[in-house]
């Protein structure tokens, strides 16, 4: 199978040596590959099959849109109706709704990742269904063990980029430890009427302490209802059923659930969760701890950190790439540290209660920084 002329699955051994290997074919990994290809051949390994399916609301904020404007025009074919939605804070129990000026481009996430693959140059190979089993570093480079169709292969590279998400194998193999993760569930509901053109972020109090928030977004003929639960939540599917009953009671236009997806998302709680890498290994996106701890937005963080890693590789000697990358993402790390200071208040019952009394223009302004 090919996408954009690139290898996406193979039963034969691929090349034994690449200049750069990227683990993970999401926005972080693909942007790293795009930039790193300026130095030499790149291999992108994705544990899942391709085209990749990521459980996500598919919302591109203004930072993500600005980033992509410098790469390539977003194809209209992957944009869903309504084309743009604004973020809206919803205190469900008190019927408080506060629309903001934060505006998102509404895309199909599966098609978005597929499109990013098509942007890669000819010296990048993308191979799906190829989980990495481990790797070792030495003074000359990195050697990975990759499993494809039941057979293990060794691949050698000068630099390795870990872009394999919140449960990163690359991060764990480095000995940096895992970052805790939210449990996320997302229902695809057949629409039986129109939803308002908002990306609603919902707080409610009847689900229990394990519940963080829900979101609703219209997506063409579908209504997506996602919920985020804190780490170690027991029986999350039962809690999502309860959440869906409450939401449907007020929004009957949300028809039957046709599909439910389960996934995890990074749960950043400390500046120590941010790890750019070690040696010749660079960590990007959620693997490196790059994600908003206050809003849960990750796509813009993924693309920017991935591009910074790829640019550092392209412009540096292999031994110097990590230092260049760390410098290049220092402003992103500072942004996350600033948001972490707000987090205890935002997650507290008092914080959520007081937000209902804050004038809407102030909520809108604060939201821009989250």
Summarize the model shown.
With 370 residues, the chain is an alpha/beta fold.
How would a textbook summarize the main sheet?
8 strands, mixed
Mean pLDDT value: 91
Q: Can you count the helices?
A: 10
Please give the radius of gyration in angstroms. 21 Å
Unreliable spans: 1-13
How large a portion of the residues is in β-strands, by DSSP E? Answer: 25-35%
| Helix proportion | 25-40%
Order of helices and strands: EEEHEEHEEHEEEEHEEEEHEEEHHHHH
Shape: globular
Cα-to-Cα separation, first versus last residue: 40 Å
Protein structure class: alpha/beta
Description of the structure:
There is one protein chain. This protein has 370 residues and is α/β, with parallel strands linked by helices. It has ten helices and 18 strands. It has helices at residues 27-36, 62-69, 109-118, 169-174, 236-250, 299-315, 321-328, 330-347, 349-355, 360-368, and strands at residues 2-3, 6-7, 17-23, 42-45, 59-60, 79-91, 96-107, 124-127, 132-138, 141-148, 151-162, 181-191, 198-203, 211-219, 222-229, 254-266, 277-278, 281-283. The strands form three sheets. Strands 3, 4, 8, 9, 10, 11, 17 and 18 form an eight-stranded mixed β-sheet that branches. The chain has an eight-stranded mixed β-sheet with strand order 5-7-6-13-14-15-12-16. A two-stranded antiparallel sheet has the order 1-2. Strand 3 (17-23), helix 1 and strand 4 (42-45) form a beta-alpha-beta unit. The longest helix has 18 residues, at 330-347.
